[in-house]
Design goal:
Blueprint lengths: L1 E5 L14 E8 L2 E3 L2 E4 L4 E8 L4 E5 L4 E5 L6 E7 L4 E6 L12 E6 L1
Parallel strand pairs: 1-8, 2-5, 4-10
Antiparallel strand pairs: 2-3, 5-8, 6-7, 9-10
This protein binds copper (II) ion (CU).
């Protein structure tokens, strides 16, 4: 199963447009790898999130996204945004995945 979400850091990104940058992110108890992603201001970015174990969540408030990363082998979550504003934007796991769940976070840096 493949989920594609189009969303924004202020501006919507049409799903048919080819992203400027694609970043693969692995989720695993209890971290994202990489957990810090630097992107250029103005870039259309696509994250491809997969799990190395159980189901996780991907809550990225700046882009109004909160979606499920399927468990290992069950697919991926694709998330798109246009990085319009410079700054640091946090994301975190939003599915209770165990003892270290609240530590499972990262950030997007727009430069
Ligand atoms: Cu979690």
């Amino acid at each position: 199963m493949k989920a594609i979400l189009a969303m924004l850091l202020l501006a919507a990104a049409p799903p048919e447009t080819k992203p400027d940058r694609t970043v693969s992110i692995a989720a695993e108890r209890f971290f994202f790898s990489p957990s810090r992603i630097t992107v250029k201001q103005g870039a259309l970015v696509e994250f491809v999130l997969t799990s190395e174990d159980t189901e996780h969540g991907f809550h990225f408030a700046a882009a109004s996204v909160n979606a499920v990363i399927p468990q290992q082998g069950k697919g991926e979550l694709r998330v798109r945004f246009r990085a319009l504003k410079k700054g640091k934007y946090a994301f975190e796991c939003s599915r209770a995945c165990g003892a270290g769940h609240t530590m499972m976070r990262g950030e997007v840096v727009v430069k």
